[in-house]
Amino acid sequence: MTAMEFLPVLFMVAGVTLVAGVTLFVSSLLRPSNPYPAKNMPYECGMDAAGEAAGGRFRVPFFILAILLVVFDVEAMFLFPWAVVLKEIGLVGYVEMFVFMLLLLVGFAYAWLKGALEWEA
């Protein structure tokens, strides 16, 4: 592959970046700016924030669950390109993907046994 083949991708990235930047700049000029203390307070379902969430602190299980979600989303992203090129990569690629999935399954079982998937109220 040559560098010229990536030129359309470069133009698209530059265009998207330019449109995003111009949109943010124009919206910062047009929007009203009127901050006041009541507006800057945390808002939670129509009630004043109370407890740990009032200070912006969240419990660790929330973050563990979020990280697990990201890990398994990345696994799903790897499955699609693998399925597209399955005929070209042959048996070696097939076995490698199942080893990858087995490692993720072991991690999932470990998280489950440690109680990372349990959400306590």
Automatic annotation (TrEMBL):
EC annotation from Swiss-Prot or TrEMBL: 7.1.1.-
Annotated TM spans:
6-30, 62-85, 91-113
Query: Which Pfam families does the UniProt record give?
Result: Oxidored_q4 (PF00507)
Q: Which UniProt keywords apply?
A: Cell membrane, Membrane, NAD, Quinone, Translocase, Transmembrane, Transmembrane helix, Transport, Ubiquinone
Sample GO molecular function, one term: quinone binding
For this protein, what reaction is catalysed? Answer: a quinone + NADH + 5 H(+)(in) = a quinol + NAD(+) + 4 H(+)(out)
Q: Which InterPro entries match?
A: NAD(P)H_OxRDtase_bac/plastid, NADH_UbQ/plastoQ_OxRdtase_su3, NDAH_ubi_oxred_su3_sf
Query: According to the lineage, what is the superkingdom?
Result: Bacteria
- Where is the protein situated, by its record's location annotation? Cell membrane; Membrane
Query: In the UniProt record, does the keyword Cell membrane occur?
Result: yes
Annotated membrane topology is: Multi-pass membrane protein
Can you cite an annotated GO cellular component?
A: NADH dehydrogenase complex
The signal sequence is none
Q: What family does the database annotate?
A: Belongs to the complex I subunit 3 family.
Q: What this chain does, per the record? A: NDH-1 shuttles electrons from NADH, via FMN and iron-sulfur (Fe-S) centers, to quinones in the respiratory chain. The immediate electron acceptor for the enzyme in this species is believed to be ubiquinone. Couples the redox reaction to proton translocation (for every two electrons transferred, four hydrogen ions are translocated across the cytoplasmic membrane), and thus conserves the redox energy in a proton gradient.
Summary of subunit composition and partner proteins: NDH-1 is composed of 14 different subunits. Subunits NuoA, H, J, K, L, M, N constitute the membrane sector of the complex.
Q: Which HAMAP family match?
A: NDH1_NuoA (MF_01394)
Protein name according to UniProt: NADH-quinone oxidoreductase subunit A
What organism, scientifically named, is this protein from? Rhizobium paranaense
Q: Which gene encodes it?
A: nuoA
